[in-house]
Amino acid sequence: QKNLENCQQKLKDYFDETKNGVKTTDSIDEFKLELFTMAELSSDLFVEAEILKLWLDFFGSDLPFFTFQTNLFNSKTLQASDFSAENIISVRGLVKNYQLGKTTVYALRGVDVDIKEGEFVAIVGDSGAGKTTLLNCMASLDEPDYGVVMFKGKNLHKMNDKAKSRVRLLDMGFIFQSYALIPHYDARENVALPADLAGFSKNLRNRIEDLIDGVGIKQQAKQYPAQLSGGQMQRVAIARALTNKPQVLFADEPTGDLDSETGKQVMELIKKFHEETKTTIIIITHEPD
């Protein structure tokens, strides 16, 4: 955050005509004309090339990102009143970078998104496009380097760890590509786990049985994950994600490890629960269909 703020200030100073005489333009034709004029003056061209090299050394090859993301120069602190009450999740200027050795991976580059309550949203993109990183930041599973995530009118990343854990337990459900089931719990115990953690297991006993029946694993309720097929494990994961009646269901490539037919069945199951419960669903996938 400190490095990004320092970068913002340096960029503001760089593009401030009153400080260093840099001329800015929104006209492509005017920009081309300036380049032509500059090319006729070899000394000016040399100076500009040296300046460009310094910026490339500072930002790597990602200078265009900072050039066009004008919201990065906005120092205004966003308030809850700046977001629509219709949106259960609002994201503004989300930035997340990773270091791989000496290389910086710009996973998220100033993402803005609004998700209304009850929507079914698919985030589609190729592998490595930043889909899972975006989901993890929206669900407070990861911390962004910069930006705001509002959940039900509250800044998610200003909460302490205990508060965020409580939000994830009570208001969010998760379906993972790798199922993430507890291996020494049977199917019913896995489904009941969120209710146990929240202290609701007695009150939600009938709901747990209804979910097990609803996803079609009633006959496998006493079997352990190692005894289940991939499709059956994902059905358990779906039931578990819905146990505490979450307001948002996050699904990260829920059909990624399944064959095409089983994948279709799982997606139909998720759609069915969305239609019945009107739960907000955010699904990550690389498949446009």
From TrEMBL:
Alphabetized SMART domains for the sequence: AAA
Gene3D superfamilies: P-loop containing nucleotide triphosphate hydrolases
Pfam families registered for this protein in UniProt: ABC_tran
Domain called ABC transporter: residue spans: 89-288
Key word Transmembrane helix present: no
Sample GO molecular function, one term: ATP binding
Keyword terms, alphabetized: ATP-binding, Nucleotide-binding, Transport
One Gene Ontology cellular component annotation held by this UniProt entry: membrane protein complex
CDD domains tied to this protein: ABC_MJ0796_LolCDE_FtsE (cd03255)
Record-given protein name: ABC transporter domain-containing protein
Annotated source species: marine sediment metagenome
